[in-house]
């Protein structure tokens, strides 16, 4: 089953039981032989997983933009360097910053193709906004019955 893994590059190869960079590369190389395409994509969950929008209240506008450039841009650079992918999505940490123009503009500046947030919802083709895609997050405590219901 195709999947996207949203990773925090600042945590890769740092914490025990987290992915290593060679493992990230291996995941990114898996192929769907029927469609002849990548089976797994690696997305960004920012460089260090901070609250993005809340940080705007703690710094000047210029410092905030530098902060976004580092969190969004550096994460992108690490992932693309390791995986060789040409497209990348951002998953907002904690869902913080959904529909935030400054975050969207920063993602566009660094060549992201869209943003996923954790505001649960469904979308239709007519309501799709590539810069605000809702999700159904599967976390360590998500029960298999809940996932089964989503897939039905």
TrEMBL record:
Domain of life of the source: Bacteria
InterPro entries in alphabetical order: Glyco_hydro/deAcase_b/a-brl, NODB_dom
Signal peptide: none
GO BP term (any one): carbohydrate metabolic process
GO function terms (MF aspect): hydrolase activity, acting on carbon-nitrogen (but not peptide) bonds
Span of domain NodB homology: 1-152
Coiled coil: none
Gene3D superfamilies from the UniProt entry: Glycoside hydrolase/deacetylase
Protein name: Polysaccharide deacetylase
Native source organism of the sequence: Schleiferia thermophila
């Amino acid at each position: 089953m195709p999947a996207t893994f949203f990773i925090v590059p600042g945590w890769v190869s740092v914490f025990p039981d987290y992915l290593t960079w060679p493992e990230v590369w291996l995941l990114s190389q898996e192929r769907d032989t029927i469609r002849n395409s990548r089976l797994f994509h690696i997305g960004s969950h920012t460089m260090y997983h901070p609250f993005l929008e809340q940080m705007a209240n703690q710094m000047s506008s210029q410092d905030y933009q530098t902060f976004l450039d580092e969190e969004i841009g550096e994460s992108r650079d690490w992932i693309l360097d390791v995986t060789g992918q040409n497209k990348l999505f951002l998953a907002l940490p904690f869902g913080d910053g959904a529909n935030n123009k400054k975050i969207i503009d920063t993602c566009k500046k660094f060549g992201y193709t869209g943003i996923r947030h954790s505001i649960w919802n469904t979308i239709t083709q007519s309501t799709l906004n590539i810069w605000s895609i809702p999700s159904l997050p599967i976390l360590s405590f998500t029960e298999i019955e809940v996932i089964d219901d989503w897939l039905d």
